[in-house]
Amino acid sequence: MGRKWNNIKEKKASKDANTSRVYAKFGIEIYVAAKKGEPDPESNQALKFVLERAKTYNVPKAIIDRAIEKAKGSSEDNYSELRYEGFGPSGAMIIVDTLTNNVNRTAADVRSAFNKNGGNMGVSGSVSYMFSPTAVIGVEGKTSDEVLELLMDADVDVRDITEEDDSIIIYAEPDQFHAVQTALKQAGITEFTVAELTMLAQNYVNLAPDELAQFEKLIDALEDLEDVQRVYHNVDEK
């Protein structure tokens, strides 16, 4: 599939190890999901998904509880979900998903990050057509054949199952995310190394070392922005 999900996650975890940035972003995402519906994951699928993701990143329970309690209260914080698209070195494609309570600030910050780091913004649709929305779920302690068999027994369709390092990574349609997790949980698998709804590039590109260094600087600048939740791209970073 072009990407090593555990390696990507380990890189991000290392980068965020000494900061509260990742937790703060999850706090906002949890608040927004809880505010949209009932603040109960059993009746709010969007919230349930965010909490599954948060678990794989070891987000402290106190932060989760605080975000949900805030959603239950009278907070008037309103966030908009916005997507920006652009290009890095050698035309590398980038998608930036944001949650913001200040659209003008976010647009200016994202544009500045592109412009200052060798990239440029594109119009809506200029990049996203080359990506496919995908559910990615990782488990340990099973072989790919065992995972495939239990998913088939549960009548759950997936795109692909691969072995990556010590994990089995399952790729499925987004609307199969909960079906895959339910089947795995019913088989006794309750811990996930990855639990993401992501955008997978249809084709990945390789950059020369100097271009890759510039590209990584651009991605870091985007991910450092307060309002940016996720960044997707089509560069093979192996």
Automatic annotation (TrEMBL):
Q: Which UniProt keywords apply?
A: Cytoplasm, DNA-binding, Transcription, Transcription regulation
Coarse class of the protein's main subcellular location? cytoplasm
PANTHER family, sorted: TRANSLATIONAL ACTIVATOR OF CYTOCHROME C OXIDASE 1 (PTHR12532:SF0)
What name is this protein filed under?
Probable transcriptional regulatory protein IJ22_27380
Lineage start = Bacteria, Bacillati, Bacillota, Bacilli, Bacillales
Molecular function terms, GO-annotated: DNA binding
Instruction: Reply yes or no: does the keyword Transmembrane apply.
Output: no
* Gene Ontology BP term (one): regulation of DNA-templated transcription
Question: Where found, per UniProt?
Answer: Cytoplasm
Q: Name one Pfam family in it.
A: Transcrip_reg
Instruction: Supply the InterPro entries for this chain.
Output: Integrase-like_N, TACO1_YebC-like_2nd/3rd_dom, TACO1_YebC_N, Transcrip_reg_TACO1-like, Transcrip_reg_TACO1-like_dom3, Transcrip_reg_TACO1_YeeN, YebC-like
The family annotation for this protein states: Belongs to the TACO1 family. YeeN subfamily.
Record the organism. Answer: Paenibacillus naphthalenovorans
User: Which Gene Ontology CC terms are recorded?
Assistant: cytosol
